[in-house]
Amino acid sequence: MPVPKTYRAEGLVVKNISFGEADLLVTLYSRESGKLKAVAKGARRSNSKMVGHFEPLTVAKLSLARGRSLDIVNQVEVTENFSSLKSDLITLARGLYVAELVDGFGSEANSNQPLYDLAVETLGAIQQHPSWELILRRFELHLMRVSGFMPELFHCVDCRKPLEPEQHRFSPDAGGTLCLNCTPYGVQIRSLSLRALKVLRLLHRSRIADLPQLQAHKTLEQEVKSLLSTTLSYWMDKEIRTNSFLNHLEYCPKAEVSS
Amino acid sequence: MTTEHLPSAAPSLARLIQELNKLPGVGPKSAQRLAYFIIRLPNEEAFDLAEAISAVKHNIVFCQECQNLTDTDPCTVCTNPQRSRDQICVVEDPLDVLALERTHCYHGLYHVLHGVISPLNGIGPEQLKLKELFPRLANNDVKELVIATNPTLEGEATAMYISRHLEGANIKVTHLARGLPVGGSLEYSDELTLSRAFQGRQQV
Fold it and tell me: What is the DSSP string of chain A?
C-alpha cells in the first residue's frame, strides 16, 4: 500500500531553528511517531498564519506533507501552550530542561507514547506547582524508565545480590547501584547514601500528586540531583545545556542599581 | 569548496569563489555567479565594494556606551544632545535599532545585547552585553528601561531575566506591547498572542 502523502500528528515542540529566509525548522516530540522534524514555511513572518505556534513548550496538532528529506507543515492548531509556565523565569527554565531531555532521549521514527505523556504531564505539573523541585527529579528518573535506561536501585548490578540497608555506591555506566564488595573494572563509581537511595526508590514509585509528602533536606536533594544529572549526561553522551542556566538562576545575584 | 574543485578557473578567481562561498546562504553555484558578476563590474565599482568591506572591518567598533556597532566611539545616538537620557531601550541586535529608528517614535538611548538568552542553545546571560547594561542603570538619570526583545520564548526569557535583576531598583521596566500584527487575523492567531492582545486592549 502506498504511504499517504499527508498525515496528522500531535506533538510537543521541543525546539525550533531559523531556516532559510523566513522558515522555521521545528523539532516536535509527537504522540504518534516519536521525534519529528518539519519545516514551517514562512512561520517567522509576522503576518504568517503559523507565527507563534512553534515556540518550544507548545503542544500542537499538525497536518504535515511528506517531503523528500523534511516534511512540511500544512496546518497547525495549538492545544496547550503552558502560558503560566512561560511567564516565570524559573518555571520556564525548568520547562526548557524537560524539552532538552525529551529531545535527547527521544528518537526519530520510534513512537514512545509513555515518554510523550510523561513530558506533557511534567510540564503541566511544573506550571501548577512551581515550588515543587522534586517534579524534575521524578521526571528524570521516569524518563530513564520509559526510555529503557532505568538504573537498578534494588540489587547490586555486579553480583546481583539484594542491597543491604547501608551506605552504597552508584555507577551510571554500570547501570545502577553497587554493593560495597563489588568494584567492576573501568567504570565510574560514586558514593550513594542510604537516604538518597530511599528517595530515588520513592520517586520511582510515586505519582506527581504524592510529591508534597516527600520532604528532603537540601543536601539530600543536591545529592539526588547531582547523581541523576550525571546519569542523564552519561546516557545522552553530552552536557545538558539548560542545566547551567538553571544553576545560574539559583545562585545569580541581583544587579547593583540605585534603589 | 576548495580550489581543486575548479581546475579550469584561474587561481585568483577560484580564491574569490571560495571566499564568497563562506557567506551565509551562498552555495557553490551562487558563489560562482557572484564572482563572474564581480569580474564583469566596472573597475571602480568592484574596488568600491572591496574598499567598503575593508573599511567596515577596520573602522567598525562597539560603542562603549550602548554596544551598538559604530564608526565613532561613543556612537552618534549616545552623543546626540537631543536624545532623552532618562530612557534606555534594550534590543537584541543592531538591526533592531534601525527598525525602531524608522518609526520616529522613540527619542531615548539604546542598549544592544547582541543576542538573547537561549538555554537550549547553551547561550546564557554571561554571553550577552548585559554586564555593560547594569552599570549604565546605576546612573540616576535613567528613569525607564524599555525592553524591546522579540516576542519569542528566548526574547521573553531575556526580558524576565533583566526585570528579575532590577527588582527593587528605582527604575520603571517596561516592554513593548504584545498582540496582533497589523494586517493579521484573529482566526489564525494562537491563544497566547490573543490573550496578550486582550490584556493590552485600549480604549478607542
Answer: -PPPSEEEEEEEEEEEEEETTTEEEEEEEETTTEEEEEEETTTTSTT-TTTTS--SS-EEEEEEE--SSSEEEEEEEEEE--HHHHTSHHHHHHHHHHHHHHHHH--BT---HHHHHHHHHHHHHHHH-TT-THHHHHHHHHHHHHHT-PPB-SB-TTT-PBPPSS-EEEETTTTEEE-TT---TT---EEE-HHHHHHHHHHHH--GGGGGG----HHHHHHHHHHHHHHHHHHHTS--HHHHHHHHHHHPPPP----
